[in-house]
């Protein structure tokens, strides 16, 4: 068989497109496998780096915990030592100081009545009396420096206007204009009474020895253009 005859019997050239497609699929599969393997390798590397970071963080946390435990132990020892030392100081302060006894001087001059004479007894008594008096004076001075208790009362006033046309803002301004030693104005609000009339309800704190309700009544009745009456709703002393 000649070469031309052999080529005539072979159909590879007629199926060239099919073989090209097979080759193309082969190379595409190979490239895809390599890409997948590279992506898997990158993911493994990222996982390893994250695990190393977590290990370092864990070691740091362990170190911090150990330092905190050491600091806590030192603090406990210090507190224990402080709890012991005040007791020792208190005991030392509470221990009374005993004065050395003074022995009487015996004078031998042949007289039995003057044989035992205490020459220093009177001086010791005077010194003890002087120390006692100094302590009493210091205590009295310390007690006199303490501030005296000031009695105060909280009063809730209901200030009523003449009618519904009264300027309540001006009324409150007049009430708060009353100023005196021992008087402190507080919060206020308008409370409906009826027929469109509102009363001013205002709180104040007074010192009982300086300000009384009669003084407030005398001062507030001066604003006769705005105030009709102001009965106190309640007094709370403290």
Describe the protein in words:
The chain is about 55% helix and about 15% strand. A hairpin with a 2-residue loop joins strand 4 and strand 5. The longest helix is centred in the first third of the chain and has 79 residues, at about 15-95. It has helices at about 5-10, 15-95, 120-145, 170-175, 215-220, and strands spanning about 105, 115, 150-160, 185-195, 195-205, 230-235. The protein is of the alpha+beta class and about 240 residues long.
Distance between the termini: 134 Å
Question: Stretches where pLDDT falls below 50 for ≥5 residues?
Answer: 110-115
What structural category arises from helix and sheet content?
alpha+beta
Number of helices in the DSSP assignment: 5
The gyration radius over C-alpha positions equals 52 Å
Query: How many strands, which pairing sense, and closed or not: the largest β-sheet?
Result: 4 strands, antiparallel
Shape, please? flat
Organism: Gasterosteus aculeatus aculeatus
GO molecular function, one term: translation elongation factor activity
Family: Belongs to the EF-1-beta/EF-1-delta family.
Protein name: Eukaryotic translation elongation factor 1 delta a (guanine nucleotide exchange protein)
């Amino acid at each position: 068989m000649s070469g031309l005859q052999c080529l005539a019997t072979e159909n590879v050239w007629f199926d060239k497109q099919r073989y090209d497609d097979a080759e193309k699929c082969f190379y595409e599969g190979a490239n895809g496998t390599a890409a997948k393997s590279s992506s898997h390798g990158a993911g493994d590397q990222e996982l390893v780096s994250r695990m190393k970071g977590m290990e370092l963080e864990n070691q740091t946390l362990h170190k911090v915990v150990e330092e905190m435990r050491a600091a806590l132990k030192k603090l406990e020892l210090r507190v224990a030592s402080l709890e012991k030392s005040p007791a020792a100081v208190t005991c030392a302060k509470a221990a009374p100081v005993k004065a050395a006894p003074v022995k009487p001087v015996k004078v031998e001059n042949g007289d039995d009545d003057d044989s035992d004479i205490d020459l220093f007894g009177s001086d010791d008594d005077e010194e003890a009396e002087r120390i006692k008096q100094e302590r009493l004076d210091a205590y009295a001075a310390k007690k006199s420096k303490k501030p005296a208790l000031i009695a105060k009362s909280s009063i809730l006033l209901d200030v009523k206007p003449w009618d519904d046309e009264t300027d309540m803002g001006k009324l409150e301004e007049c009430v708060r204009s009353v100023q005196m030693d021992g008087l402190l104005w507080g919060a206020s609000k308008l409370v409906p009474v009826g027929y469109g009339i509102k009363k001013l309800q205002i709180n104040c704190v007074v010192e009982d020895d300086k300000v009384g309700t009669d003084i407030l009544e005398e001062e507030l009745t001066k604003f006769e253009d705005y105030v009709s009456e102001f009965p106190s709703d309640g007094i709370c002393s403290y």
